[in-house]
# Entry
Amino acid sequence: MRRKIAVFGGTFNPIHHGHLRLALDLVQQVSFDQMRLVPCHIPMHREDPSVASRRRARMVELAIAGSPTLTLDTCELERGSASYSVDTLAQLRAEQGGEASISLIMGLDAYLGLMRWHRWEELLQLGHLVVVDRPGYQMPKSGPLADFDREHGAATKVLEQASHGFVVHLDIRALDISATEIRTLTAQGLSTRYLLPEAVRHYIAERGLYGAGDPVDKTY
Ligand SMILES: Nc1ncnc2c1ncn2[C@@H]1O[C@H](COP(=O)(O)OP(=O)(O)OP(=O)(O)O)[C@@H](O)[C@H]1O
Ligand SMILES: O=C(O)c1ccc[n+]([C@@H]2O[C@H](COP(=O)([O-])O)[C@@H](O)[C@H]2O)c1
# Structure
């Protein structure tokens, strides 16, 4: 059977249950052999994250500690340069060889901006794109992305059958959680409990990230 590897890139500032449950749901639906969480080091598509990549990676590590299926991949930190998904996929393809099925995972909000990504036309030569819905976002019915989606769209089984080249949309449970909301709640001194793992909440509180005040308030 073809080895199936998933690459789930994100700013993870911080990682939350929206990311984690999405990753786990996909591992179970697709039987990925690996699900690699790849924190981006220097994003060129958004403002500099307020927290250094080393710390964002550490929060990923804390979040997945003990998970048998999710792993942290720090390739973008090690590369040290601007973080482009095309480079990450190319590096993984070189490592894994031509047979492996490689899937780049993204939420619909990220997919909507795909045509602004660096060398985005090359992504499907290196892997598949697996897109999951995100509350508040909808696929356009017409336009260049809708055309691209129709041209390359396929059913899940293609992830077994081909190493690259297709776009697959998968249903996962919708969790309306964002890192932006977690940063805002933290800065306002409001509780973020149940939105992200406790170990990550403690890390944020202990280091005063996102304007966190005293260590995690017991009343919250
Ligand atoms: N709740 C969610 N449901 C589905 N996809 C999600 C969810 N949260 C994040 N994603 C996806 O995870 C990837 C990484 O997201 P990212 O780290 O930017 O989190 P975020 O919550 O969107 O952060 P921010 O609010 O800072 O933009 C993206 O592909 C994004 O679409
Ligand atoms: O390669 C690009 O040009 C590119 C442009 C936008 C987003 N990405 C990647 O998409 C992933 C999700 O991005 P974000 O901003 O939602 O965290 C993350 O791994 C980014 O590096 C990549």
